[in-house]
Design brief:
- Strand 14 (382-385), helix 14 and strand 15 form a beta-alpha-beta unit.
- This protein is of the alpha+beta class.
- The chain is elongated, with a radius of gyration of 40 Å.
- The chain is 49% helix and 22% strand.
Length: 530
């Protein structure tokens, strides 16, 4: 039987259905018994990119079947020869060689008792396959996440059926509980109570927290039970996630972490305050808390008025303590540096085998600032960065430099606007003044130089000190007026008033320099009193 005769015969047999063939949204091809193409519809041309004339008389296997699917085509041909219908998900290729996922349906074309050829239908299921792949990837991601969490975690549907279970130490082996309900695992009262909580979580959309006692492998566990609603639908049923945290183990972890922090903090603070000498014994102990004094180290100090100066008598003690504890935990999660509690501040210690640069130090401080901002953007932090030091006295030296940078930051906060990170190398004369600020002579110098103006501002509730600072920092009264947002004439009259109170002119270069030093020392003393 020639293909031309077959084409005519098929055309006649399909004449009443030709409109369906031509307008079908699914790609369709009619082939001979030898699988030579007789006809394809417009949807086929659109899907695969081959024209009717191009395919006529040729086998589809040479055009749209990938090499790896050749054996699959033989199976289809044998099944059709036996009068069977074949239906399968497979991959075919377009004219440009791109693969395409299709649902293939092939069935014989029979005229009375004679098989005349076959009809092959291709439905594009690319989007469906992508969705299925995404679901599989999401499920695998969920399983990977749950396996990474140390707590017991489950997914239940609204019937209380176990959809998933994660953890090595489950109540029963995982394969024994999947697909079973709470009533099949627990006593009726416990199961019913648990199921009510799950259903309430689903209907209210609100997470639930409960303390529960469970018996696991003949041992009792006190667990914190957290139930949260999920958007995950299984067989048309809503689901909820349940996480069980062993409170005893969590308490042990917290106590150990707090003990390690306290042990480390006490040691560092003793070194910094001179209560402990960095002798051979201390150097060996330092290694047990992660510090090697033979390697360069650098200190950063994190200062905030929101947790500094914590005292039990303070009415906000609990709030301040909680803020600081939270930041110690947040900042201390990273293993690349060491965190400790150093009185009013939080200390961060870095160690490298070579000295870091100013740029990398500031980048590191920015990352600390970002961590805190992500946790709570309302917490305002001043970060002081010390220099790199090495040797037994390195911790104390770098700490003092970082402390000086923090003081400089507090002194310059009003004029620096949003700046909150200060490197020791950038604070200039304040490196020296921060140390001098602790001496009695410094207080006497401030009193003699600007003491009368300080007393006048306090007694009269005026603000002449900011104007004086602007005058000694600027080259003209106009420039000073811009600093304090006043008219130049107002600054001129204030200058006269200030000179009268101080009993001296502020035009002399030596006097202006002395006043500038005194103002910085005064600001340092105020910062230390906060």
């Amino acid at each position: 039987m020639s293909d031309r005769w077959l084409s005519t015969a098929v055309g006649v047999s399909l004449s009443g259905k030709n409109m369906i063939f031509e307008s079908s949204p699914d790609a369709m091809a009619i082939v001979s018994v030898q699988y030579a193409v007789i006809e394809v519809n417009p949807a086929f041309v659109k899907l695969f990119g081959f024209g009717k004339q191009e395919l006529a008389g040729h086998r589809l296997i040479d055009y749209i079947v990938p090499i790896e699917a050749a054996g699959e085509s033989e199976h289809i041909q044998k099944s059709i020869a036996l009068g069977q219908t074949v239906r399968m998900n497979t991959i075919r290729r377009r004219a440009g060689g791109q693969p395409i996922n299709v649902l293939l349906t092939a069935y014989p074309l029979i005229n009375q008792t004679r098989q005349m050829g076959a009809c092959i239908v291709y439905q594009d299921i690319t989007d469906q396959v992508k969705k299925e792949l995404l679901v599989k990837e999401t499920e695998e991601l969920l399983r990977s996440f749950a396996r990474a969490v140390p707590d017991k975690s489950f997914i239940f549907d609204e019937d209380g059926r176990y959809i998933e279970a994660f953890d090595k130490n489950l109540i029963r082996p995982r394969e024994e509980i999947l697909g079973r309900t709470l009533h099949e695992i627990f006593p009726p009262d416990t199961a019913e109570k648990f199921l009510r909580q799950i259903r309430y979580t689903m209907s209210s959309g609100k997470p639930q927290f409960t303390i529960r006692e469970l018996e696991v492998n003949q041992e009792k566990e006190v667990c914190e039970e957290r139930i949260a609603p999920m958007d995950y639908i299984v067989n048309g049923k809503r689901t909820a996630a349940v996480i069980l945290t062993d409170i005893n183990k969590r308490t042990e972890r917290i106590l150990f972490s707090n003990y390690a922090l306290q042990r480390r903090s006490n040691f560092f603070n003793d070194i910094i305050n001179g209560n402990k000498i960095a002798d051979e014994k201390a150097i060996e102990f330092a290694k047990t808390v992660g510090v090697d004094f033979s390697i360069p180290l650098c200190c950063c100090l994190l200062h905030s008025e929101q947790y500094a100066d914590i005292s039990i008598g303070d009415s906000e003690y609990n709030t301040r303590r909680n803020i600081k504890n939270s930041l110690l935990e947040i900042v201390g999660r990273d293993l690349d540096y060491i965190v400790w509690d150093c009185g009013d501040d939080i200390g961060v210690l870095r160690q490298l085998h070579t000295n870091g640069s100013r740029e990398t130090d500031l980048q590191f401080a920015c990352r600390l600032q970002e961590k805190i901002s992500w946790y709570n953007s309302d917490i305002k932090i001043v970060i002081g960065v010390g220099g790199w030091q090495i040797g037994p006295d390195s911790l104390r030296k770098s700490y003092q430099q970082a402390w000086s940078a923090v003081l400089a930051g507090q002194c310059q906060a009003e004029t620096d606007g949003q700046q909150s990170i200060y490197h020791y190398k950038d604070i200039g004369i304040l490196q020296f003044l921060a140390r001098c600020g602790r001496e009695e002579a410094a207080d006497e110098f401030v009193k003699e130089t600007i003491g009368k103006l300080i007393d006048h501002d306090e007694a009269k509730e005026t603000e002449l000190m900011p104007t004086l600072e602007a005058i000694v920092r600027s080259n003209s009264l106009r420039e000073a007026s811009n600093m304090v947002c006043l008219h130049p004439k107002s600054v001129y009259y204030r200058k006269l008033r200030i000179e009268k109170i101080l009993g001296k002119s502020v035009d002399s270069a030596d006097t202006r320099f002395a006043i500038a030093i005194a103002i910085k020392l005064y600001q340092i003393s105020k910062a230390k009193l906060k």
